[in-house]
């Protein structure tokens, strides 16, 4: 009966073992995973746009090749994540519809513009840095397909962070104008990067349950602190500052203290009022519509190929 199934599910979670697609799971667990994995997939796909803005203007052939590869990696991450969500009984078409009708979210961070080449560096360093901090623990998520997708994604994100750091290092140690451009990008991306981790724990409706289910392994505030502690020494190596006068080492806590985050900005951006929300979603819907013939051709090819194999 249901009690027995629930007991087995709870025991699997308690033993730190994985839940797999064919296992029974409570509906809330399934819905939470669909929500989180879909939002994560949407973020990867929408997240291609800010950096793609610079592919045609990358400052050298090498930088262009690296950036092309990075943006393609993000598309790949989106595809693994949609595949992981599909194991929970939703279709990719349904998830696209939920994104396009604004019923599902994508990360707040991708609603900010990339104004200069240094923004590509700042995204790699800070946004991919935040992504790794959040995603490494997701490799131990209790849901098998999500955890396994995260392993490869994290390896690629580490390369992405390194390339962002490299762009900023070069700019920071370049001409005064280049240094200033790097500093300006970091000033603009710092606070939005801290918001990527989600609302503070006492205002996060999903954290407690997701921790109990082993979906999240750390709270939003714990991960935000880990990120700050990782980034501050890297900023020193870059020769750049972070735009927070209250940022300082706290020997008692063994962590960096940081100033207050403007949560009204976060809620405005996730509510659709960020600088680029309209543009990002419009571009996404246009690309999806314009690509309909490719999906139709691929489906027709697969159907024909299937018939030939059967014959
Ligand atoms: N943006 O109760 P919580 C990348 C929503 S990295 C938008 O704390 P939860 C790599 C949240 O969904 C970025 N919405 O929720 C890359 C919920 O709304 P709902 C993607 C946010 O789920 C780099 C409500 O607020 N990474 O793409 C945000 O327990 C460069 C309440 O929040 C992931 O998605 C936000 N920042 O914790 C690609 C990681 N924060 O659903 C291209 C996986 C919160 O009730 C270029 N996701 N919300 O309507 C997670 O770890 C979690 O879902 C959190 C939120 C931590 C994001």
TrEMBL record:
Highest taxon of source: Bacteria
GO BP terms, alphabetized: phenylacetate catabolic process
Transmembrane segments: none
Record-level GO cellular component terms: cytosol
Molecular function terms from GO: phenylacetyl-CoA 1,2-epoxidase activity
PANTHER family on file: 1,2-PHENYLACETYL-COA EPOXIDASE, SUBUNIT A (PTHR30458:SF2), PHENYLACETIC ACID DEGRADATION PROTEIN PAA (PTHR30458)
Entry protein name: Phenylacetate-CoA oxygenase, PaaG subunit
